[in-house]
Queue: 3 jobs
Job 1
Amino acid sequence: MTIRFGILTLSDRSARGERADASGPALARLLLAENWSVVHQHLLPDDEAAIRQILIEWADSGTVDVILTTGGTGFALRDITPEATRAVIQREAPGIAEAMRAASLKITPHAMLSRVVAGIRNRTLIVNLPGSPKGAIENLQVLLPALPHAVQLLRDDPRSDTSH
């Protein structure tokens, strides 16, 4: 099954050119290694309206099955990715965020500071990931085994009953 992804990196410093975006490309490499496709990849500053706009645009376009955001999920005042995500999703998928935090707590106590959110808009799953390349990859790896079934369900694929 080919899963189509959008990757949205959220970082003021990277958007200003002060540091390279390492997380977005790291996520893309992992997804391509799984033989999935990256349809959209973009970098934005921590601007809630701009984040909401691109999440809506990508989710409503029908071109992606999953949108991964990376960055803006911590305690800093400019970390507003969860709020932007909540504003556009129609249904939350709390088990995804819970699983990522639980797995991350085995690695670092800082995982309890994560405010990641996951949810669904129409037929697209939107998942917030941490901003560091290491944290983004570790969290995505927690999600990988469940992604094909999640996408089958979102696509209303009749074969989804056989993949439990």
Job 2
Amino acid sequence: MTASRALLLPHTPSSVAVARQRLCHELLAQGVADQTVADAALVVSELLGNALRHARPLRSGRVRVTWRLDDERLQIAVSDGGAGTEPRMRPRSLTSPGGRGLEIVEHVANEWGVRHEGEATTVWAKLSAQAAAVASV
């Protein structure tokens, strides 16, 4: 099974909830395990939140959220218009009010990275996609 989706969303904080809801709804409809859906919701929230907080929108004034579900892998990507710095994990600080988003992604995802496509910056993460267990009667 292969399924993919692309959303163009406004460069505004309310887009995080929209992306999370659409992603979770579609993954559950595809029979993806609850834990994988929860991990995916966390990852899309962190990636999109970082894009909205730290980067410019794409030329369209929006951000792009995509996901692709293959048999055993889910890739989530968020594209924006770039920022003055490269997305990266920051050193840990117990007193910092934020800065743990990519650390969370690092922990949940199998791998993550950044790619540049013209004027767009895309941060992506890959997760193991497990199917929901089917109850036998």
Job 3
Amino acid sequence: MSTEFTPIFVFILLAIFGIASAMVVLSHFLGPRRFTSVKQMPYESGMDPIGDARQRFDVRYYLIAIAFLLFDVELLYLYPWAVAQWSHSGHPAAVAAPDLPLTAADHLAQAGSGPAPFGPVGIPPAFRDLVFGQVLVFVFVLVAAYAYAWRKGVFEWR
């Protein structure tokens, strides 16, 4: 690393630590010091802490949390599939319609550097219908789980 920037870095560090320490010292001397019972009371999300901290939660809270995680995380599996579905360099539509945008592997192959360094990416055209059917089954299971949870009243907060 070049030493010509060292004074600048030292200046920035001194400025950050100097301002931070000045704020701490000034707040200690200039800040109010009225200790009341309200200020000493614990604060929890805008609610007054009443009762024991180890109270039981309604099971519906956990059902909503688990349902959110289920549908949120499971739907993340659709993004890689959507990218891989049409990113294979042997895309049949690219042969029929050459004006379609090319993938990175196609650009590398046309530039004369040979095949893509990691081989063709994406789902091979022969397997696209099979994988699409599997994704439809996956989405159907998610919809069925959502309908079951809705019918059981998981999403109703009473």
